[in-house]
User: Which sequence fits this backbone?
């Protein structure tokens, strides 16, 4: 793979993953803020229920229902954060793999032992034939 002579092509190759990573992190920060607000609300409701000062029976039941809903909301946000962090980690890993692949392709790495593209040969049923093909000593 040749490095393009156009500087904008190189800039696009470098900046596109950075912009997408930044957008993913903004999404994570927004969800993290929601998590913080949900935790604060649950703590506030728990304090109101524990104190029971000035709460009638109907209002106490309402606050308990709100607390249960807040707990469910918090758990859903934790699951969402877990999914977001997993997605961002996979995105970063795939970006690194593509950059490493592009670098290896530009260096034209074809030394034995580094990268051996091959598949299982049905006639032989083993992987040794791929190694023989790589070395040029394949038997018929």
Assistant:
């Amino acid at each position: 793979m040749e490095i393009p002579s156009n500087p904008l092509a190189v800039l696009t190759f470098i900046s596109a993953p950075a912009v997408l990573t930044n957008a993913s992190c903004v999404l994570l920060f927004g969800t993290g803020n929601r998590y913080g607000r949900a935790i604060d609300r649950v703590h506030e409701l728990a304090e109101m229920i524990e104190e029971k000062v000035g709460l009638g029976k109907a209002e106490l039941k309402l606050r308990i229902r709100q607390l249960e809903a807040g707990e469910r909301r918090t758990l859903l946000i934790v699951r969402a954060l877990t999914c977001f962090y997993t997605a961002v980690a996979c995105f970063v890993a795939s970006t690194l793999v593509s950059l490493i692949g592009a670098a290896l392709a530009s260096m034209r790495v074809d030394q034995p032992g580094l990268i051996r593209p091959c598949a299982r040969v049905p006639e032989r049923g083993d992987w040794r034939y791929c190694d023989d093909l790589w070395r040029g000593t394949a038997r018929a």
Observations:
- The chain has two domains: 7-109, 110-140.
